[in-house]
Amino acid sequence: MPEGIGSDPRRKTTPARWRVLGHPDGILIYEVRCIVENHGWTAPTAELTHKVLLGRSGAYRRRLNGRTSFSDATSVLLTRPGDEMSVSHPMGCGDSYTCLEVDEAVLADRPDGARWLDTAGWEGTSDAPLDLAHRMLIAEFRRGIDRFEMSERLHRFLDGVLNLTDARAEPPGADLARAIGRRPATQVAHRRLADRAREVLAAGAFSLGLDEVAREVGASPHHLSRVFHRVTGSSLTAYRNRLRVRAVLDTLAEADGRPLRTVAAEHGFADQAHLTRVVRDHVGHPPAHLRRLLTHD
Predict the structure, then answer these.
(1) Which stretches make up the HTH araC/xylS-type domain (predicted)?
(2) What pTM was computed for the model?
């Protein structure tokens, strides 16, 4: 599957534009941008390999082994052969992600791979360092590197992914289950409310205030803020900033060289200085430097 448009040629999947970035021994890396023809749920499809899926832009819903979750630019998902997944795109097309397919033999040779081989997959969110490493990896592969360097970079990147999953042995929302105890209907309602807020923000509504987001999801600002933190472990402000910083990084990787003041306005920042401060706080570099790191033309 070198490059093309349509479903994955090995099995029926959501139509997409996909491009292989590299295939050193035992690890295949490719990028995907979905082309939605049907916004409803796709038929469940069995996974064929061990996969890491890393969100880059947009959002969609997924159903993995019967569990429904919301996926956006902060999401990381590890799956295993035999896992069944279906997806829906209620927000339309345009979501993009990177996929690493890892041979079982590669995982078996890694001391940190046993957990992935022996237990179910993992879903969660990437932190700012891992997200920047992900985007820089894509930029380097687009520029062109040899197979030796590809292999070493991918193994080092897997270090970061697997370290993240080990550090978060308890999934997001575990404290919610403890707090609610025996009220599963309340737990489900709270997860839905948090996911609805994520949908509103992931749709690019960075200019909306907290009151407006709360009205969109049918809750009071106080209730939404409290529930969102309990479900995700993050405040709405922190989540919103993570999401829009990733949207900014996506924009900075484009070749059009858009002025930073325009980028700031498009993503709801007060001005270019505010953009620079928030981006630097999240990833440790100012936008102008990140543009040089992430552009590949």
Answers:
(1) 191-293
(2) 0.81
Task: Indicate the residue type of 122.
Answer: W
Cα–Cα distance, 58 to 60 (Å, whole number): 7
How is domain 238-294 classified at the CATH fold level? Arc Repressor Mutant, subunit A (1.10.10)
**How would CATH label the architecture of 3-167?**
Sandwich (2.60)
Per-residue pLDDT of the chain (297 residues; tens, 9 = 90+): 466 565 565 655 667 788 899 999 899 999 998 887 667 888 898 988 999 999 998 888 899 988 888 899 999 999 999 999 998 887 776 789 999 999 998 888 887 777 777 766 788 888 999 999 999 999 999 888 888 899 999 999 988 888 887 655 444 444 444 444 546 778 888 988 999 999 888 886 788 888 899 999 999 999 999 999 988 888 999 999 999 999 999 999 988 888 999 999 988 898 999 999 999 999 999 999 999 999 865
The residues, any chain, with a CB within 8 Å of residue 294's CB and separated by 6 or more, are: 135, 136, 139, 249, 252, 253
Q: Which residues does 81 contact at the CB level (< 8 Å), separation at least 6?
A: 46, 47, 48, 49, 50, 104
- Asked if the domains at 3-167 and 238-294 fall in one CATH topology, the answer is no
